Amino acid sequence: MSDLSTAFTRQVGIEVPLICGAMYPCSNPELIAAVSDAG
């Protein structure tokens, strides 16, 4: 187990707890689409 392992990372099967979300009010539909497309 790594230092970044948490209940959340184990549950969703990821190694790093990195989650992206909208940054209201400094985001726009284009930014959200670009982040979504990048994975």
| Structural class by secondary-structure content | mainly alpha
SSE topology string: HH
Q: Which segments are poorly predicted (pLDDT under 50) over 5 or more consecutive residues?
A: none
Question: If you compute it from the alpha carbons, what radius of gyration comes out, rounded to the nearest whole angstrom?
Answer: 13 Å
Number of strands: 0
Number of helices, counting only DSSP H or I runs of 4 residues or more? 2
Strand count, sense and closure of the main sheet?
Answer: none
Strand proportion: under 5%
Q: What does it look like?
A:
This protein is mainly alpha-helical and 39 residues long. The chain has one domain. 41% of the residues lie in helices and 0% in strands. The chain has helices at 7-12, 29-38. It starts with 6 loop residues before the first helix and ends with a helix. The model has no long low-confidence stretch (mean pLDDT 81).
